[in-house]
Amino acid sequence: MDAFTIRVDAAAFDAGQEIARLSADPGVGAVVSFVGVVRRHGDGDNVAALELEHYPGMTEKSLAAIVAEARARWPLSAALIHHRVGRLALGEPIVLVVTASAHRAAAFAACEFLMDFLKTQAPFWKKEIDADGHSRWVEAKSSDEGAAGRWQ
Amino acid sequence: MDAFTIRVDAAAFDAGQEIARLSADPGVGAVVSFVGVVRRHGDGDNVAALELEHYPGMTEKSLAAIVAEARARWPLSAALIHHRVGRLALGEPIVLVVTASAHRAAAFAACEFLMDFLKTQAPFWKKEIDADGHSRWVEAKSSDEGAAGRWQ
Amino acid sequence: MKLKLLYFARLKDAFGRDHETLESDAASVGALLAELRARGGAWADELAEGRVFRVALNQELATADAGLATGDEVAIFPPVTGG
Amino acid sequence: MKLKLLYFARLKDAFGRDHETLESDAASVGALLAELRARGGAWADELAEGRVFRVALNQELATADAGLATGDEVAIFPPVTGG
């Protein structure tokens, strides 16, 4: 499997298996991962599930561009972005980003960079669904724009 | 199991299982993990294994103090440090640090903070063992002291 | 010329459709937006000057001055919220 | 008074032991280090003023001016390299 992987689908992921896969290169000393999880308090206070919509085609292109940018900035051995779509219940994982490098500073920085850009550049939209069935589209956060801005 | 866990032993860990465990709180939206791996190029160029020595008693105390400091700085829902000891072959995981929070900025910062302090404050020592059986104690890196210094 | 338009998330709900094929003479993204606004109702509201939305031309983010050609795919959507 | 001394990593190898019990009158960590240096050989080399090592008193990092009491556990080791 390619050392740099992008997946957008409804399937769950196995973070431990992916971390182990990205650790296999004997040059890798540090593997950092981020998992985003559906939580109860979002824009609403009693979120039971999220519905994740995306723009097929553009999603994959924008994620590939984000990964290419990370590789230009840090010496990465491997990276993975797996973003789920469709309906995800409270507590379920939404996104997995894993970065592997010889040293931890590069792995940490690249993982955080990928998340900041994924939150502001990749065409995904979240709809929150409350326990009573009411739903609303999540509003973009200015804190995310700020987090992405620090890399420029 | 307690939301804040410290383990020092020879056993392997299951990063995916620990990430899932720390995601269980409905307030958790972000889980960041770090895995350190035995790599071929350390102080030597053909490392086949590491021997990890530690100071039982002080190790656990210093890790508990590091976790307490992280909790004072960031709103964490859960955290885990699992540091292995004994002989670990090339490619094997050495340490797992997982942090969980409502938001990703706190989870990333706390995970990186724990690693920086673990590298400079916790009484572990690595001996590199080459394929031909030669061995040497790893020298402390000034880059690690620098990384820890930025939090002060 | 023929354009393929796509709408996502809140805009998809507001416009009651996720895509349409449009015969248009709009020379730019800005001209296309003016044409859509002229439909009134949700189109005028959601695409008003003060509202925050994004436009992608052939799957790349684009600004109002980007030129259009027949067969182009133009997507209009709110700021993204994935991750 | 009786002190429990522990050595780790390179210092354990250099001193040929990982612990010892010492009967000492050293009032401080600094005085204890001077007593150990006076053994000569690896002790004088490894604990020389210019060398980098750490001392923990009862499992907390300590400096040369820290006072000693009977039963104290004093560990001497190189800078740490875990993680």
Automatic annotation (TrEMBL), chains A, B:
Q: Which reaction does it catalyse?
A: 2 [molybdopterin-synthase sulfur-carrier protein]-C-terminal-Gly-aminoethanethioate + cyclic pyranopterin phosphate + H2O = molybdopterin + 2 [molybdopterin-synthase sulfur-carrier protein]-C-terminal Gly-Gly + 2 H(+)
- Name one molecular function that GO assigns to this entry: molybdopterin synthase activity
UniProt-listed Gene3D superfamilies: Molybdopterin biosynthesis MoaE subunit
Keyword match Transferase: yes
Read off the InterPro entries from this record. Answer: MoaE_sf, Mopterin_biosynth_MoaE
A Gene Ontology BP annotation from the UniProt entry: Mo-molybdopterin cofactor biosynthetic process
Q: What is its EC number?
A: 2.8.1.12
Keywords on record: Molybdenum cofactor biosynthesis, Transferase
- The protein's annotated pathway: Cofactor biosynthesis; molybdopterin biosynthesis
Per its UniProt entry, what is the enzyme's top EC class, as one word? transferase
Q: One Pfam family this chain carries?
A: MoaE
By its UniProt entry, which PANTHER family does this protein fall under? MOLYBDOPTERIN SYNTHASE RELATED
Report the family membership.
Belongs to the MoaE family.
- Give the multimer and partner information: Heterotetramer of 2 MoaD subunits and 2 MoaE subunits. Also stable as homodimer. The enzyme changes between these two forms during catalysis.
NCBIfam families, alphabetized = PRK10678.1
What's the protein called, per UniProt? Molybdopterin synthase catalytic subunit
Q: Which organism is it from?
A: Pseudogulbenkiania subflava DSM 22618
High-level lineage? Bacteria, Pseudomonadati, Pseudomonadota, Betaproteobacteria, Neisseriales
UniProtKB/TrEMBL annotation, chains C, D:
Q: What GO cellular component term, any one, is given?
A: molybdopterin adenylyltransferase complex
Domain of life of the source = Bacteria
Keyword annotations of the record: Nucleotide-binding
Q: What GO terms in the biological process aspect are recorded for it?
A: Mo-molybdopterin cofactor biosynthetic process
The record's Gene3D superfamilies line, in alphabetical order, gives:
3.10.20.30
Under the heading InterPro entries, the entry gives: Beta-grasp_dom_sf, MOCS2A, Mopterin_synth/thiamin_S_b, ThiS/MoaD-like
Q: Which GO terms describe its molecular function?
A: nucleotide binding
Query: Which Pfam families does this one have?
Result: ThiS
Family stated for the protein in its record = Belongs to the MoaD family.
Q: Which PANTHER family match?
A: MOLYBDOPTERIN SYNTHASE SULFUR CARRIER SUBUNIT
Protein name (database record): Molybdopterin synthase sulfur carrier subunit
High-level lineage: Bacteria, Pseudomonadati, Pseudomonadota, Betaproteobacteria, Neisseriales
